[in-house]
Amino acid sequence: MEHPACILEDLKQFVVNDAPPTVYYLPDFISEDEESYLQQQVYKSPKTKWTQLSGRRLQNWGGLPHPKGMLAEKMPDWLHTYCGKISSLGAFSGKTANHVLVNEYKAGEGIMPHEDGPLYHPTVTTISLGSHTLLDFYAPVSIREGDAPQTEENRFLLSLLVKPRSLLILQDEMYQRLLHGIQPRAQDALTDKVANLSAAGASPGETLTRGTRVSLTEKTMEPQTKRWKGSACDADSWVAFPVLSDQQSQDVELVEAFAAPIVDKKETSRLLRELNAVRPLNGLQHVKRVRAVRGSGGPHPLEVLVCLVSDAPDLKVVSIDDLLPPDGVQRDGLGEPFVVKVPARPPLTRPQFELASKHWPTSFHEDKQVTVALRGELFGPLRKARMSAYMAAALTAAETGAALGMEAVG
Ligand SMILES: O=C(O)CCC(=O)C(=O)O
């Protein structure tokens, strides 16, 4: 279907002028009935469609983005309709959105600052369902000398208040240069750092309590990776970030397990020995079996993993006796079980380790080179200057070749 090549003139009234170019905020883009319909469709989707990440759940629709182009999957009708509706605003320069991420955030959950990258047409559109959130924007890490420490706090620039049923469109600098994220908070105190307060019908000083928010993020996958225009090439103006494997870049996946308090500390070694024998945590060697309960003024300073929820005979069990075989583990010293989430895989990078440890203590064999690379410090100024020179030489050679009528290979 044909869509306008430019964003519709009518939408210009929704530009958020207090933010860098370009943000369109459309309150009440969908009706309450449409919101309920979309929520029903999201929650009706097969359970296998959800991926549990630390701090949110995710559904991926349309295919798997890949640098060589997306392995496309048919979009379900309920999403296809809304991809068409948004594309008909001209949000994707005549193209149709072909990829949707559905994120579900419970109150208190969020997403780390990130950029969506060059695999997509540089526009992202988001429909929000169920609750508001604050979407925060950050300057990227820069290596210019004399800058203040590059903490998240120092790089924070502005927030946008996205209310349920709204449509947010981000393009240009807001999409291509800035990072976006959502702080894991249950309440948002609105300040004048929220650039679209009046458009969202709110005022500074208000505090909004978050509920469960579902966001539908529609994008268009480019057929091939494109280099964004305007990326500078002098060695001081760029940072080399590593291209990590999928496993190294992904969020922390969690599995549910039963834990129980150790009510008698003196029984800890015996309990560990016996639990390891009757309920080994197969594939979870990275997870520490016992954790100290932080700042425990309470009666039980330690908790132990009993078994994975998937290993339990009956998911509704509440008693320790139902989780353990009659023999093999003396119950003395164990309290009643409860469900926790533990990291499903060993962390491969420091950010993954930090996130994983927030859920349950986890061991980490750090690859120092990856950590340094993630900080953008893998190459010193001399090596970067050399890289810039080689890249410039390659470009010159290509341009000269093209001028001589030679054909590019590779
Ligand atoms: O939920 C949102 O509004 C943001 C989602 C997002 O940034 C993402 O999926 O990459």
From TrEMBL:
UniProt KW Oxidoreductase keyword: yes
GO molecular function, one term: metal ion binding
Subcellular location per the Swiss-Prot or TrEMBL entry: Nucleus
Cofactor: Fe(2+)
Keyword Chaperone set for record: no
Keyword line: Dioxygenase, Iron, Metal-binding, Nucleus, Oxidoreductase
GO cellular component, one term: nucleus
Main location class: nucleus
Domain Fe2OG dioxygenase: 96-223
InterPro entries hit by this protein: AlkB-like (IPR027450), AlkB-like_sf (IPR037151), ALKBH6 (IPR032862), Oxoglu/Fe-dep_dioxygenase_dom (IPR005123)
Family assignment from sequence similarity: Belongs to the alkB family.
Protein name: Fe2OG dioxygenase domain-containing protein
